[in-house]
Amino acid sequence: MNKSLHVFGRRALSCGLSSLALALALPTGAYAADYPTAKVNTTGLAVTDTEVVVGQLHSATGTMAISETGSIQAERLAIDEINAAGGILGRKIKIIQEDGASDWPNFAEKSKKLLISDKVAAVFGCWTSASRKAVLPVFEKENGLLYYPTFYEGLEQSKNVFYTGQEATQQILAGLDWLVKEKKAKTFFLIGSDYIWPRTSNKIARKHIENVLKGTVVGEEYYPLGHTQFGSLINKIKLKKPDAIYAIVVGGSNVSFYKQLKAAGVTSAKQTLLTISVTEDEMLGIGGENVEGFYAAMKYFQSLDNPNNKEFVKKFKAKYGKDAVIGDVTQAAYLGPWLWKAAVEKAGSFDVDKVVAASPNIELKTAPEGYVKIHPNHHLWSKLRVGQALANGQFKVLYESDLIEPNPFPKGYQ
Amino acid sequence: MDSLSMSELWAIFVMQSFNGLSSFSVLLLMALGLAIIFGQMGVINMAHGEFLTIGAYTTFVLSEVSQRWMPWMQGSYFILAVVVSFFIAASVGLLVEHLMIRHLYRRPLDTLLATWGLSLIMQQVFRSVFGAKEVSATLPDWLMGSVQPTESIDIPINGLLVMGLTLLMTAGVFVGLFKTRWGVWVRATTQNRVMAGAAGINTRRIDKYTFALGCGLAGVAGAAFTTIGSTGPTSGSLYIVDTFLVVVFGGAESLVGTIASAFSIAQAQSTSEFFLTGSTAKVLTLLAVILILMLRPHGLFSIRVRR
Question: Given a cut of 90, is residue B263 above it in pLDDT?
């Protein structure tokens, strides 16, 4: 790499960092010498005078590799940047990567290995709720620290987990409010893949539609994962003529679903559709031309127009190729190491209990999504955005909410 | 539903019937190749889904090629893709038959294990070559539209295309098996290999080309399914269960059985899907298949043969 470029990159980074540190009222450029290992590590973590070890636990193989590859890349990028800027408390971060292999018991085994034998100071990982539920007892028993990046159904809070994606109410309520306000939707058709996340999300959506928005749910349907024939469903949609379709179809089924919708004449010109399960990553597989004009409710889109994000997209593409796309979860995964760094520096220690105690109200002004803050309930304050799908596989951001308080246990929605 | 007019009900009825037929042709197109291999040769080909994926990726590659270098081909590349998919899948089939299957004839359980391993290997090859993410062939616009005979009826063109291909392939297989010399040889070989050999039929060659044909048909199915579904390393495994279901339910030795079985499963699924939900429909269909298989263990149409 060109040396001057490197220095420039470093300067730009430390510039961003110092603004972050300023916000936290912390001194910049911490040196290991100022933080002796005996002081910053009283619980026997893998921390030396020069190095701190963290774990990365995602599926690099198996069916979930499609989704989790982006998270692995984003976390690595963040950690490389932190290291390039001097590390954490003067120590370089070393990664031990384990492969959950899309197999939930395997996730539990690997998390045991990371926490018990490797003594890692923090773990960045998991995607599906099933894998998170599998590792949760391990993290709680061994007092580990997990940064979990996926938007999910909520109904969970653990001392040992920080949730950097949105929980259901942040993603669903604001999106539905927008549909009613902007699209005058009164009747809704809810569709999902048949497992916990879509079902719980649609349950929350239904309550919100019926109790708060005074609309009607005219249909609610679930199809097995991997289902490829949506003809009957599409006919039912045509029969019920909903003002809006609310779609949480997951994985490869998406491709069939949107291609068949389009072929049956249910296009964005005639039908409003809002999804919370199609990001830029899924668009690659579906083909932008098949989703064009439909809406997605996410906290992050690659096309977000702010300096943090422009820098992030540039760096991500420089590292992983110009064809790489960044979806909502990829960005949330990128936040993990930065949030951990901020908490460790505030605590002046790697001890899990101290990091957890220091975490509430930590803010990140350098986040690609703009600004986030850790809530005492371990989720993030974040905005919701509604994007309209473009044929080129990107989203045009149409709406941005205020910061939304996370609420994993919403009253009246369970 | 009471606010619907007769014409709307009629429209839904037409589209729903079409939907049933379209599911039928998808199932049949998947099962055709497998029925030949399983029914005529007794080889349980667990890698059948991966041959389908070969067709899908071939279509994807041709779509990329035509987009980047031959824009004038964008409207028509798909036709070419169907043909090329057939030949590529069939050639890989020939190779597989030569390296693996021919050593395993008359050992159905071994073919099951070996081809299952093969399917894992092929999935990993797809993943290494095309990446883990699902890809999508860019289809010509004329393929993604719908025919509108009346204001409220939409008949998807991609569904029509799959139907047309199914019709063509099925007719081809029937003509091939029952009207040509090759067909006579195939039937003779499967019914009595030793006698067929004694009568001067090169049974080695028959096996080889029958297997390749079955794989080629899977390739065509793969190309056709890019119009309605996803293409990823594991796409094939999505279809394999349904495919075996159709073949076993129909009675392994009978092509007519395969057609009847695909038809009844598709209609049961699509009708119950319309009145119930998707997941329930799937459960009901599977239950019905199990019940009928308990009554007729050899499938709907079993050929009586002296064993």
Answer: yes
Give the Cα-Cα-Cα angle A21, A27, A31 (nearest 5 degrees). 115
**Residue owning tokens 């290991």:** A32
**A231 and B23: CB-CB below 8 Å?**
yes
User: Strand A123-125 vs strand A146-148: parallel, antiparallel, or unpaired?
Assistant: parallel
How many other β-carbons are positioned within 10 Å of the β-carbon of residue A203?
17
Residue B132 has pLDDT above 80, yes or no: no
The tally of CA atoms less than 13 A away on the side-chain side of residue B238 is 23
pLDDT digits (tens, 9 = 90+) for B27-76: 999 899 998 888 778 888 999 999 999 999 999 999 988 888 887 777 78
Nearest to A66 among B227, B232, B269 (CB): B232
Identity of the amino acid at A185: A
ipTM reported for the complex, 2 dp: 0.83
**Cβ contact, residue pair B133, A66, below 8 Å:** yes
Give the 3-state secondary structure of B125-169.
Answer: HHHHHHCCCCECCCCCHHHHCEECCCCCCCEEHHHHHHHHHHHHH
Q: What pLDDT score was predicted for residue A237?
A: 92
Minimum Cα–Cα distance from A64: chain B residue: B132
Test the B interface: residue of A259, A281, A282 with most B CBs within 10 Å: A259
Contact assignment for A65 to B132 by CB distance below 8 Å: yes
Instruction: Tell me the pLDDT tens digit for each residue of A362-383.
Output: 999 999 999 999 999 999 999 9
Indicate which of B8, B16, B53, B133 best probes the interface with A, i.e. most A CBs within 10 Å of its own CB.
B133
Question: What mean pLDDT, rounded, does chain B reach?
Answer: 87
> How far is it between the farthest Cα atoms of chain A?
71
* Helices first, then strands: H and E counts in chain B: 13, 2
pLDDT one-digit tens code per residue, A44-63:
999 999 999 999 999 988 77
**Is 0.90 topped by the overall pTM?**
no
Cβ contact B157–A223 (<8 Å): no
Neighboring chain A residues of B243 at a CB cutoff of 8 Å: none
- At A2 the pLDDT is 43
Q: In this structure, are residues A300 and A385 in contact, taking their beta carbons and an 8 Å threshold?
A: yes
User: Cα(A410)–Cα(A246) distance, rounded to whole angstroms?
Assistant: 20
Query: Which chain B positions have a beta carbon within 8 Å of A287's beta carbon?
Result: 136-139
Q: What is the pLDDT of residues B156-175, one digit of tens each?
A: 888 898 999 999 999 999 99
Question: Per the structure block, which two tokens stand in for A137?
Answer: 């007892």
Query: C-alpha angle with apex A214: A223 to B1, nearest 5 degrees?
Result: 55
A36: left (phi over 0), alpha (psi -120 to 50) or beta: beta
Given a cut of 80, whether residue A264 has pLDDT beyond it is yes
The tokens for A205 are: 């959506």
CA A340 to each of CA A89, A121, A363, B265: distance values in angstroms, whole numbers, following the listed order: 12, 10, 11, 53
Of residues B119, B89, B124, B301, the one with CA closest to residue B211: B89
